Amino acid sequence: MERPSLELNLPDTNEEGKLYVVDSLNNLNKLNVCPDRCQQVLDEEEKHTGGAGENTAGSNRRKKCLIFTTFVLTLLFGLALVSFVIFLIIQTRNKLDQISSRLVSEKKSIEELKKMHNMILMHLNQSGIKE
């Protein structure tokens, strides 16, 4: 037994009209395939989803919102990391400046000690005290 083809040559209509026709054909096919009990389940499903077009649009909107939120959070996380790295660089530079200033002051102290040592040796040599 041959089944009639559900393919139709639809005239150029807007997208909503095409979706309505396809949805109607799907419902008609379900009526032919499903018994009466099954139709009640299908009606309940349609009530919960609110129609296929609305569900798809809502899903796309949620996906876009999720992608946008993920993008914003990623940017904020990257900004926080960059700020932390800049903070560490500044702290390291400050510590290096402190260390270099200490080294310069220690170098001056060592040079002064060398001068004092040389002066003491000259004084000892002049006074005639020998080791």
From TrEMBL:
Q: What domain of life is recorded for the organism? A: Eukaryota
Keyword Transmembrane helix part of the UniProt annotation: yes
The membrane spanning regions, by residue number, are 65-90
Q: Which intervals of the chain form a coiled coil?
A: none
Keyword terms: Membrane, Transmembrane, Transmembrane helix
**Protein name (record):** LSME1 protein
Species, as recorded: Bucco capensis
